[in-house]
Amino acid sequence: MDYLVNLSVLEPNADLTARMKDLGVTIRRPLAPEAKLVTKWVAEEFGDGWASETAVALTRQPPTCFIATRDQRLVGFACHESIARSFFGPTGVEEGSRGLGIGHALLLASLFDLKTMGYGYAVIGDVGPAAFYEKAVGAMPIPNSAPGVYAGMLRT
Prior knowledge:
The protein is α+β, with helices and mostly antiparallel strands. It has helices at residues 14-23, 35-46, 48-59, 102-116, 130-137, and strands at residues 3-6, 25-28, 65-70, 73-80, 87-93, 121-124, 140-141.
């Protein structure tokens, strides 16, 4: 099922920003020379499908992808507008860095970018952790949204 986020009510989270700083985590767009490193990491951590979507996001100018780094090492990523207009995802954080707020910080970076692009709403396609998105950004399920944009996708 897909979820909808009202971008007009989205607020910055100063506590989360401070937590990222304290943890030494930087949220930023990847640079062009990092594209292969990012897509390779995504493929290794989350699979080829997400790596393909990430590659699309990295070809945009500016990229519609954000990465989380710690000690010059990739620990997470979030993309938007890679599968469809106004869609958020894919996103992921390495297992050892989960639970620190990095995923939430990446989510906000992408959603604020969608808001800057002029969208009033963002769609989170085929939501996994629904409770996280509901709590973090007030996401709501979209009735009759399954199977969504992924319907009929090739299987390996």
